[in-house]
Task: structure prediction
Amino acid sequence: MKTLSDIVRERRSTRAFLNKAVDKSVLVSLLEAAGRSPSGSNLQPWHVHALAGEELQTFLGEVKRSLAVNPRGEGSEYQLYPDDMGQTYKSRRFKCGEDMYATIGVERENKMGRMMQFAQNFEFFGAPVGLFFSIDRSFNQPQWAHLGMFMQTFMLLAQEHGLATCAQEAWSVMYKTAASFLEMPDAHMLYCGMALGYPDPDAPINTLVTDREPAESFATLRGF
Result:
C-alpha cells in the first residue's frame, strides 16, 4: 500500500488525459474529504465549480469564441507573478518551461508550437472534468493560503484514487467568460482552474518531473 509520502512524491501536473469519465460520486467524495483541510476559525473559504460532459463542452465552445476575439485573454483580476521576482525564481520558471517543452520536442524557436501547447490549457488538456476555484473578495492573504491548502489536499486525494490533476492559473485570464458561464456571484473572485481525470501513461509530456530544492536551500534550522 502506498504511503502519503509516496503520493506526495508521485503527484505532478498532468497535461494529457485518457478519454475516461470521472464518476460524480468519486468527485463528491474527494471534495468532501478535502473539506477537512485547515482554515483559520474554520472559515472554509473555498468555492468550487465542476464541469463535465455536455456542460464542459459547451463551456469550452464559449472559451474558443472568446479567444478568437481576444487571443491574449480578458486580463486578470490579480497579478500572477511580480514584475521583478529575482533571478533565482526566474531561473526556476525558465527551466520548468524548457523541461516541459523538451518532453514533446518543441524547441524554443518554435513559437507556434509553444503557443499551441499553451492553448491546451483552455481545453483542460483533454481532461473529462474541469474545476474552478474561487474565493470571496472580502478575504485576504490568510484565506487565500487556506484555499491553497484545500486545493493541495484535493490533488493528493485525487492522486490516491488513481486520478491526476493540473492546477491552472492560466484560467485567470478568462475570468469573465468563466464567471459568466458558471453564474459565479459578483462577490467571488476566480483564482484558477484545474484539470481532473485519468492520466495518459503513454503521453511524453506526462514524464515531466520538475526539480525540487533540498531542505537546506529554503529552511533554517536552529537548536538541532
Notes: Strands lie at 46-52, 129-136, 164-168, 188-197. Residues 45 and 141 are 12 Å apart (CA to CA). The first strand starts at residue 46 and ends at 52. The chain is about 40% helix and 15% strand.
